[in-house]
Amino acid sequence: MARVTQQDIAKVMGVSVMTVSNAFNRPDQLSPDLRTRVLERAAKMGYTGPDAVARQLRSGRTNTFAVAFEEKLSYAFSDPFSVAWLAAFSEVMEESRASIMLLSVPAGDHEALAAVQDAAVDGIAGLCGNQPAMIRARERGMPTVYCTLATRADADGKGDYVVIDDHAAALEMAGLLRRLGHRRVFLLVETLYPGQPRMAEYRPEEFRDLVDAHAGSLFSDDLRLSGLVGGLQGLDVTVVPVGTNSRAAGHAAGTLVLDRKDRPTAVVAVSDVMALGFMDALRQRDLVPGVDVSVAGFDGLPEAAEAGLTTIRQPVRDKGRLAAELLLDPERKDRRIILPHELIVRRSTRPVA
Amino acid sequence: MARVTQQDIAKVMGVSVMTVSNAFNRPDQLSPDLRTRVLERAAKMGYTGPDAVARQLRSGRTNTFAVAFEEKLSYAFSDPFSVAWLAAFSEVMEESRASIMLLSVPAGDHEALAAVQDAAVDGIAGLCGNQPAMIRARERGMPTVYCTLATRADADGKGDYVVIDDHAAALEMAGLLRRLGHRRVFLLVETLYPGQPRMAEYRPEEFRDLVDAHAGSLFSDDLRLSGLVGGLQGLDVTVVPVGTNSRAAGHAAGTLVLDRKDRPTAVVAVSDVMALGFMDALRQRDLVPGVDVSVAGFDGLPEAAEAGLTTIRQPVRDKGRLAAELLLDPERKDRRIILPHELIVRRSTRPVA
DNA sequence: CTTGTTCTCTGTAACGATAAAGAACATCAT
DNA sequence: ATGATGTTCTTTATCGTTACAGAGAACAAG
Prior knowledge:
- By secondary structure, the first copy, chain A, is an alpha/beta fold.
- Chain A has helices at residues 6-13, 17-25, 32-45, 52-59, 73-78, 80-95, 110-118, 132-139, 166-179, 204-213, 222-231, 247-258, 272-284, 302-307, 316-328, and strands at residues 64-69, 99-104, 123-126, 144-146, 160-164, 184-189, 236-241, 266-269, 294-299, 310-313, 336-339, 342-344.
- The first copy, chain A, folds into 3 domains: 6-50, 434 Repressor (Amino-terminal Domain) (Orthogonal Bundle), CATH 1.10.260; 64-162, Rossmann fold (3-Layer(aba) Sandwich); 166-315 and 336-344, Rossmann fold, CATH 3.40.50.2300.
- Chain A is 44% helix and 16% strand.
- In chain A, strands 2-1-3-4-5-11 form a 6-stranded parallel sheet, with helices on both faces. A 6-stranded mixed sheet of chain A has the order 7-6-8-9-10-12, sandwiched between helices.
- Chains A and B meet through helix 4, helix 5, helix 6, strand 2 and helix 7 of A and helix 4, helix 5, helix 6, strand 2 and helix 7 of B.
């Protein structure tokens, strides 16, 4: 009941293994008659076609590409940005008839890192470049592409990328708030470092030390945050790590911040998802975004447009598409791509009263 | 600059290849001292650890499982049912440290079928059992699990499954409509067969012939539809294939049906997504679900609860979870699981005026 | 001084396939 | 008849790893 191989067929038919192999892969290398007989015999013997793994070993290619996530995969399917990116990425892969493998390598999960080692893929893409999976993949000498620069330094490191200039974008956002006259601003980020207490509040002087103290850890929003902080210098700025990049976390930040006397006049989240959650909290209190508190996000999701949320639009689909193209075509020249972004001002940001 | 292998290291160090292999996989098989030296030397030579593909070939296992979709992958990420299923499936896989491969094998795309042949996986799961990818996988002798029975006959075929009794569920739904006194009912399905003209209207006598004429084609909602038709016998029933399983298609069906004189008193879609789309069309016309037209769906999505939509709840997450467990544990006994469903009556279905 | 056991390490043979080159024979033009 | 050209099939050599069986030394127990 063992598996039938080309060798078995060859032996039974009294032909060489190569002939059997050619019958399946290179019809021009043997007579149509023999080919038919081989295929028939193979079918009769219960041979189900060339083994994928063996073929991959011999050819040195798997035609499969991995996507690494820092979170559980259920997050990858629920975050709008992630889904849009994945959709664009997969469309290109589908067209090229390449397969996609999903890897989940949560920060700090050392065992999960082995998945990168054991992945039979030709390359790997990830949303963030400094995540452990990406680093490991590069150590393995595997082609990598990532779509967010976490720090300036990343730009000089290894690996290809498709990103936007998050720092410049953040500066523009800060400029907008300045022009609108805001003086007391809260900035919502996911986490400053792994194990970060949620909903703590930091002054700009403090948070930088914290991040540096955990250097090498993952802080993917560093460019956005430091851009905002830099651009808002001189104003009353508070940084709040809300724990996760989710609507719920943004909402929780709202409950934390909105019920006190000294409300901020503006709140910027480093993602639209968080900003939308914060707006949920406003709505609950019958406060109006832009009127009572100005709110802004990053990413440019369709949901942000519906909600009238000021944001930085980034070309998500292009990021996904180009990431796939870079992986598929190792010969391609420009392998470090900086895409344009756009500050989109909507009704959620207004001049301070 | 060729790739470094265990053999290279062995040669350079004057030890056997097995020793190198053992240094990486079975530390107890060699002295700690030698092991350290091997690892150091390996690192120095730029060896990046055992090759995944070679290891898979040797061991006969890939620890990877495929999920096959009949649509483009972007659909898999956008349909709520699909996403929920995938999330549950992936959670189990993550816990077991198995990887997931996504395959897209659209109906009729013969080239894409090759992906199933070339997938280096230990098993494959799919939402529907009679899709080409599943059939091909079973021909390859690969373990399969699917989560929807398309026809009664599927139940006797090969492969494991985790399903609900869609036919019985549909009968219950039909019974509800009967009790509520509905006499003119429209049934929305995705498509009856590939290439099906959209928004055609069929009588129950007709559609069965159509489906049979395209026997062997994919019609995954057959059990639901035939249950509904059977349960509504004697009433004025019309079957409408709306083209795709999407909110937009349900909405389009609404524009088709709602602006005529002889409106149906009730509409049942074989999925919540379509039903929700239909309700969008109602709302646009200031018609009230349940009052002007009764509406019902299938699946039991959270969105359905919010919208007050009567539906058949099915345990999506259990389907995903169990599918993964069946793939992971080939020894497990019960491999054909029928989960309970539940008719949930909400305000979208009321007695006919 | 056996005999047995443990600890390290080695050699060989797969796993299932394909690339590359070659052999045998037929065909064809000169 | 000669060489050139094809067609069809075979031989040999990997791809990078691990399973398995054993060999040699050291050490304890009888």
